[in-house]
Amino acid sequence: MTAFLSRRRLLGMPPLLFAAGAVAPLSLTAQPAPPAARTDAPGLIRLAANENPAGPGPAARAALAAATGDAWKYPMGEAMALRAMIAEREGLTPGHVLITDGSTEVLHIAALLAGAGGGELLTCAPTFDYAASQVRAIGGTVRELPLDAAMRFDLAALRAAVAPATRLVYLCNPNNPTGTWLPGSELRAFIAAMPAAVTVLVDEAYLELATDMATHSMVDRVRAGDSLVVARTFSKLHGLAGLRIGYALARPDLIERMGRLKLVVPSGPGLAAATASYQDFEFQAASRREIAEGVAITTAALAALGRPQAETRANFVFFDTGGPAPAFMAAMRQRGFSLGRPYASHPTWCRVSMGTVAQMRQFAGALQAHYG
Fold first, then answer.
1. Would residue 9 count as lying in a domain?
2. pTM value?
């Protein structure tokens, strides 16, 4: 059973190992402040945070309601049950699974292990930069290479850039904010070429949105014992972002090392909802269909207006607004839509998350009015 980092154990915790490299003890004072909460104005349609506007499915809602009566109990048993269920479905043992406070906790722990003692994280940009920010916060190094011409992770450049200090390579697949993806065959070849001292972190937060997930997931390389961590979440397909449940898949020795840095036990209601949703295949299929229809409406509208866009496999679309992105976002806000943040590497590009199908039809109309 993976140990959690309690207050009693914290001061006596020995240095940890990540892959082949030793890391120094961590400083609690080095942690960054949490990000400010997003406060959208009332009445705005929220297309900013890659959420599932369907919310929890019927099974998850029923489980949430039933779990309130047990809220007085510590939910260790519920966490172990979900861990066992995930392991069975993925052909792993429970020792390969760590239940976390959303998948960002997976990224946070991996970053602490990689960055402590000045270790390096290697990635491409733009991507989801949470792991990179945590590495920087504790004095580690981050090297960010450009995406390739198709806005995908440049695997050849990353492979060539691995250095003696590199401890972690971060890949988000599909990538946030571009929505682009790497086929499983390419990722497997990349992982096989990594030195033993380097761990690859594959963030599969959006992969469940695809019907061919099994073809492109790296869980088979976890089974094979590679130096690899797969991060997943119940925040996207399952519509449970506010309940903060995620998990890591990795070799048991890596899971054990990560578990020593775990500070949060997910809530009982959150675990109950995630467990129910994990088995609710009807709701999952309905969410995929709704999201795919929203993407189709959005990409068609952008194509009709001649706006360049990245090919997406996620629940958002990344496109060139034709001018400064903040100005476009402000114009859309005036029309009632809250969009994602700008990206320094792509100053004219904007990411729009999927709302409901009706909301995406409204957004398509707003695009036409803006550019028409």
1. no
2. 0.88
